[in-house]
Amino acid sequence: MPTPLTRTLNLNKASRTVQVADDGEQLLYVLRNQLGQHGPRFGCGVSQCGACTVLVDGQIRRSCVAPLRTIPEGANVETLDGLGTPEDPHPLQKAFTDEQAGQCAYCINGIIMGALGWLRQRQAAGTTTAPTEEEIAAFLSGEAPGSTLNYLCRCGAQ
């Protein structure tokens, strides 16, 4: 019999408590079904496409393969829903819009959240220059130093 689990998360800077009947329930479904987050999306379900990417305590996480039980009590969880608004977008959202970086927009959530985590990690490591096109391509393909996560766009807009 699955074990029920209650967890409090700091979702986009707001404390939210969730309860699941099965402690193996993936973070993606908790975010979408209980917390009304529409940014993270189900793509592949096996951590290969990135559509479900969120930041957990600043780290890039694939929410489709992250059981809620693996998310620490009180963890800071960031989703695209909490970054900005149409009237006041986050600079990364604005850059993607200005450059017309998406077509169908299904994968863009994951790419933006992954890019945000990656850029923050670069900054924390002391790299303050803008990444080159080659570095961005390496990040998206999972070939960047220290990264094994890739991002897939099925509609071909990239």
From TrEMBL:
UniProt-listed Pfam families: Fer2 (PF00111), Fer2_2 (PF01799)
Organism the protein comes from: Actinopolymorpha pittospori
Full protein name: Nicotinate dehydrogenase subunit A
Domain of life (superkingdom): Bacteria
Keyword rRNA processing belongs to the record: no
2Fe-2S ferredoxin-type domain residues: 5-83
UniProt keyword annotations, A-Z: Oxidoreductase
SUPFAM superfamilies: 2Fe-2S ferredoxin-like (SSF54292), CO dehydrogenase ISP C-domain like (SSF47741)
GO molecular function terms listed in the Swiss-Prot or TrEMBL record: 2 iron, 2 sulfur cluster binding; metal ion binding; oxidoreductase activity, acting on the aldehyde or oxo group of donors
Biological classification of the source: Bacteria, Bacillati, Actinomycetota, Actinomycetes, Propionibacteriales
Calcium as UniProt keyword: no
Coiled-coil positions: none
Enzyme Commission code: 1.17.2.1
InterPro entries: 2Fe-2S-bd, 2Fe-2S-bd_dom_sf, 2Fe-2S_ferredoxin-like_sf, 2Fe-2S_ferredoxin-type, Aldehyde_Oxdr_Iron-Sulfur, Beta-grasp_dom_sf
